[in-house]
Design brief:
By secondary structure, the protein is α/β, with parallel strands linked by helices. The protein contains 25 helices and 9 strands. The protein has 2 domains: 187 residues, NAD(P)-binding Rossmann-like Domain (Rossmann fold); 279 residues, N-(1-d-carboxylethyl)-l-norvaline Dehydrogenase, domain 2, CATH 1.10.1040.10. Helices cover 62% and strands 8% of the residues. The chain has a 9-stranded mixed sheet, sandwiched between helices. The structure holds NADPH dihydro-nicotinamide-adenine-dinucleotide phosphate, the ligand CC[C@](O)(C(C)=O)C(=O)O and magnesium ion (2 copies). It comes from Flagellimonas abyssi.
């Protein structure tokens, strides 16, 4: 199998990368109709499998789970997830031959194996679906010509897919039809119905391509969403301890700080997150973010280049073949960091204190979101996609760190995201050595400018505010957030 993206002409690569249309809510007027009464079998019942299945069943669809024999025999977690929620569970042989839609929600690493096993059992004219296009785009999986291949990719961890649905809403979702596999022209209607079944239509759906989803998803998760949150956590914690801040306080400030400050991001973008700081702190965070952007830009660009060329997927797949050596070493090293090993204290930290004492964290978030967005859009990924993969998803990942630190984040995200997160982190920390030497508790651990005059130069403040507000991620984000709010009452 060859990397599918690399087999395309440059023109076709650019066309597929740039495919991104924000769909109007009226396009979902038929709801789940195209899948109503169809037999839908989900392979795998993990983070996405369970939560998508629960939503689709609540939306009136017929869902069952096909699991590998060992999972059923040993009653593994996937079996328990499905059974405890009263779903029918069976083997591939029992469930796949009668399925109209088979949804592959196993880890990306397993896709070639799973799809090769499942495909011969699928009935003529059925549909195969993915929630991430790695197997099609990076591994070049060839699917039987009579089968339709679609993708419905929620831009969120599985837990939030369910939580948002229960709130009568959903998470933004990318849908796509693989151009090589749409023999009956039914792919788009089915993908729309599936997105409606998960609640994604209420939050915003982009009609995209497998290529655009893969290249943007990999970039977001490696850099701002997971990699930089990991690097920022470790470096910020170590610095506070080095400077004598109480360890338990430092641990708490980081563990819950990302969630608190990115709540500001979720509600009103970088503008609102920065507005939560005092004027002098805002200018300081702005300057730090500018400095960080200069230092980290080449690393962000390297990640994007390696994702585009297929170098990233090639080296990750080599690690798969090598028994996951790098992944397991990196996972163990993360578990040994002082941040991971130091429990958060039970002292009170007010919401505002997380901002005031976490100016460096705000600067990490601002620089990472903007860099990820800029690097993606410079590479042909459309702004809306880049927004979902940078600003929109950062608070959702920050929530996982609040639950159980970096361990929880890396547990909840997919296997490709975990690998890419460590890869970025290990390259980024050394790059920031000199920058971190100048960092003191004024910007991490203590209240910025406490007791000092809060006056600032008006001209500078106006220029800083203008630069923050006019960044493209803010312009695109304001539009997307407005449409999400507009759609919310429909649920
Ligand atoms: N994690 C996330 O939040 C997101 C994931 N995605 C995508 O969703 C897909 C699923 O990822 P995710 O939910 O993280 O996966 P998980 O690791 O959470 O779930 C894996 C499921 O697959 C089963 N499984 C594992 N290995 C095999 C195998 N060899 N054969 C058959 N079944 C197997 C497991 O069951 P058992 O081991 O018991 O057999 C388990 O039920 C991926 O394509 C991912 O990129 C997309 C958006 C976000
Ligand atoms: C951020 C990681 C992710 O891409 C996701 C939850 O969207 C993943 O692959 O887990
Ligand atoms: Mg993702
Ligand atoms: Mg991903």
């Amino acid at each position: 199998m060859a990397n599918y993206f690399n087999t395309l002409s440059l023109r076709e690569q650019l066309t597929q990368l740039g495919k991104c249309r924000f769909m109007d809510s009226s396009e979902f007027a038929d709801g789940v109709t195209a899948l109503k009464g169809k037999k839908i079998v989900i392979v795998g019942c993990g983070a996405q499998g369970l939560n998508q299945g629960l939503n689709m069943r609540d939306s009136g669809l017929d869902i069952s789970y096909a699991l590998r024999p060992a999972a059923i025999k040993e009653q593994r977690q996937s079996y328990k997830n499905a059974k405890e929620n009263n779903f029918t569970v069976g083997t591939y042989e029992e469930l796949i031959p009668t399925a109209d839609l088979v949804i592959n929600l196993t880890p990306d690493k397993q896709h070639t194996n799973v799809v090769s096993t499942v495909m011969p059992l699928m009935k003529k004219g059925a549909t195969l679906s993915y929630s991430h296009g790695f197997n099609i785009v990076e591994e070049g999986m060839q699917v039987r010509e009579d089968l339709t291949v679609i993708m419905v990719a929620p831009k969120s961890p599985g837990s939030e897919v369910r939580e948002e649905y229960k709130r009568g809403f959903g998470v933004p979702t990318l849908i796509a039809v693989h151009p090589e596999n749409d023999p009956e022209g039914k792919g788009l209607e089915q993908a729309k119905a599936y997105a409606a079944g998960t609640g994604g239509d209420k939050a915003g759906v982009l009609e995209s391509s497998f290529v655009a989803e893969v290249k943007s998803d990999l970039m977001g998760e490696q850099t701002i969403l997971c990699g930089l949150l990991q690097t920022g956590s470790i470096l910020s914690f170590n610095k506070m301890v080095e400077k004598g801040v109480d360890e338990a306080y430092a641990s708490k400030l980081i563990q819950y700080g990302w969630e608190t400050i990115t709540e500001g991001l979720k509600q009103g973008g970088i503008t609102n997150m920065m507005d939560r700081l005092s004027n002098p702190a805002k200018i300081k965070a702005f300057d730090l973010a500018e400095e960080l952007k200069v230092i980290m830009r080449p690393l962000f660009q390297k990640h994007m280049d390696d994702i585009m060329s297929g170098h990233f997927s090639k080296t990750m797949m080599e690690d798969w073949d090598n028994g996951d050596k790098n992944l397991l070493d990196w996972r163990a090293a993360t578990g040994e960091t002082a941040f991971e090993k130091t429990p958060a204290g039970d002292m009170e930290i007010s919401e505002q204190e997380y901002y005031d004492n976490g100016v460096l964290m705000v600067a990490f978030v601002k620089s990472g979101v903007e860099l990820a967005y800029e690097t993606m859009t410079e590479s042909g990924i459309i702004g809306e996609s880049a927004y979902y993969e940078s600003l929109h998803e950062t608070p959702l990942i920050a929530n996982t760190i609040a639950r159980k630190k970096l361990f929880e984040m890396n547990r909840v995200i997919s296997d490709t995201a975990e690998y890419g997160c460590y890869l970025f982190d290990h390259a980024c920390k050394p790059l920031l050595t000199d920058f971190m030497k100048q960092v003191d508790t004024e910007i991490i651990g203590k209240h910025f400018g406490e007791g000092k005059d809060t006056g600032v130069d008006n001209v500078r403040l106006i220029a800083v505010n203008k630069a923050i507000r006019e960044h493209d991620v803010e312009v695109v984000g304001a539009r997307l957030r407005a449409s999400m709010t507009a759609m919310k009452p429909i649920g």
